[in-house]
Amino acid sequence: MFAPRDWPLLPVFVAVADVGSFTGAARNLGLAKSVVSQHVRTLEERCGVRLMERSTRRLHLTQVGEQVLDAAKEVLASVRSLEQVVEGHRNAPTGKLRVTLPFDPSLSAMVAPIAATLTRRHAALKIDLVFDDAVHDLVAEGFDVALRLGSIAESSLIVRRLASEPEIVVASPSVTDERGEARTPKELGGAPWVVHSGLPVRSSLSLRSPEGGKAQVSVTIAVSANNVVGLRDLLIAGAGFGLLPLHVVREDLAAGRLRHVCPAWSSRKLTLHALLPTRKAPPRVRLFLDGLAAAAKNLGFDPP
Question: What are the b/e assignments for 177-206, b being 16+ CB within 10 Å?
Fold first, then answer.
């Protein structure tokens, strides 16, 4: 009698019936012809009826064999459907995605649509975004991802580069009108600077010309702040000159609230990194990072 343990015989029987020969089925399945023939004989023994008529030229299904073939194909189709359900569940994002990222309005505007889209499409997914500039222990605090702009200190975390963009020197119109429109780094000598207090203190700033020339600008700190929101507001208010990522000030430049100083000179490029506690990222992390990389590209970021 046919039993569930005999199900592995079905795909062999279907393969033989489809091509009409043991040799062709063996070739398609990557099995020895003797193994294929034995599988069909075993299936006939389990069913207690003859399923195929053998001849020197071709195999022919008996009437019962035709019915068994139809039933076997239905069983195999059901198995494939089951596999798709399981695979879909395995690849579906579930659980809570915890992300820590800098308090950066432009980065927030990039991440927010991704989070909204993912949670709309996947009801089993929850997302927790923690905006601050602190360095977190991802494992101890249960974070899946940390997003960071700039250089990354050596650590045991897995680092994935998502995008890059330049840092540029900016100042308010009131500052540039008072000091004059600086076109070269030399004209920035003695200028007051607004700096990020959470980053290593810079006594000088290195700028590069399109021709490859380098210039060092002495940095005299007038005001510091611990996040880019405060830095941007201070610069718009006229507190001095500052170095900020292009995405942070793009709208302010277009609106005239800030001006690009020494536009022919550029600083280093900032890289947007994703830090992960493990290489085996779950689907929720992979989907989030893929969406973030695509969003960065659409917003004009450079490849990493």
Answer: eebeebeebeebeebbbbbbeeeeeeeebe
Contact 262, 188 (CB under 8 A): yes
Hey, which residues does 148 pair with through a beta bridge?
273
CATH topology of domain 165-269: D-Maltodextrin-Binding Protein; domain 2 (3.40.190)
Query: What are the residue boundaries of the structural domains of the chain, listed by start?
Result: 4-90, 98-155+279-296, 165-269
Which superfamily does 98-155+279-296 belong to?
A: Periplasmic binding protein-like II (3.40.190.10)
CB proximity list for 261: less than 8 A, separation 6 or greater: 168, 169, 170, 171, 176, 182, 188, 241
H/E segment holding residue 99? strand 95-101
User: What CATH code would you report for 4-90?
Assistant: 1.10.10.10
Tokens for 193? 């600077």
Phi, psi dihedral angles at 267 (to 5 degrees): -100, -165
pLDDT tens digits along 66-122: 998 898 888 888 887 776 666 655 667 888 999 999 888 778 888 999 999 999 999
Answer yes or no: pTM beyond 0.85.
Answer: no
258: left (phi over 0), alpha (psi -120 to 50) or beta: beta
Give SS3 for 170. Answer: strand
45 touches 32 (CB < 8 A): no
Q: What is the DSSP letter of 192?
A: E
Tell me whether the CATH fold assigned to 4-90 matches the one assigned to 165-269: no
Which one, of 71, 23, 20, 25, lies nearest residue 49 by Cα? 71
Read off the tokens for 48: 């207690």
**Which residue type is seen at 16?**
V
SS3 102: coil
